[in-house]
Specification:
mainly beta, Elongation Factor Tu (Ef-tu), domain 3, 2 domains, four-stranded mixed sheet, 3 helices, Methyltransferase, YaeB family, methyltransferase
Amino acid sequence: MFRKAIMQHLVQSIGTVSSPYTQKFGIPRQPQLVAQARICITLNAEFSADCVRGLDGFEYIWVQFLFHDAVQEGWSEMVRPPRLGGKKKMGVFATRSPHRPNHLGLSLLPLERVEIVNGQVRIWCSGGDLLDGTPVLDIKPYIPFVEAKPDARAGFVQGAPELLKVVWQAAAQQCGLDAETQLLIESSIAQDPRPAYQNLPERVYGMEIAGWNVHFRIVDKTAYIEGCAPCKSSLHLK
């Protein structure tokens, strides 16, 4: 009861994310893995330009948010990190799983620009790993001299994930994508969005991204994009 009261009265959304990722499947598992994934954080009307004065002087920002699409799934004390192949369990506080007691997330993102449109604050970032519609809870500037620790131990997470090779099949090449969206799709699929326990070369996976339905198969270390068509409600971020 006490925790619920805290969430209701002390923790409130300050804005909302617009993202090319309109479903959980396909979102990069960490920020900055797909540089082409541009997001826009639109602050609520009560937050004026004064709230972001000086923010554009920083190159990166911390974005604290709510894993809103995972709240109804609850949380687990032990989870299976994809980096361990989905076969070994770790404590939830030793992972970045969305299935946490308070479902809070934290991403470090490159800041592209801050703009004011008709009095509304918009903050643009690249390398996003956030679902479209994500509630943002806080924004802080990244300060390198206190927060950069490149030599720190990283537990079971060693190095960047291995990327898949991405091949467009002939039929998918005819869908009329612009070069920027094509690169976004390629870079997202190269991260291998499948659950760690799945390795089914005959399965065709589908993901919605930047207003497109994309279908692909993965055989060994290569992803074959077999189809691409506009979603019914197309999303375009400028």
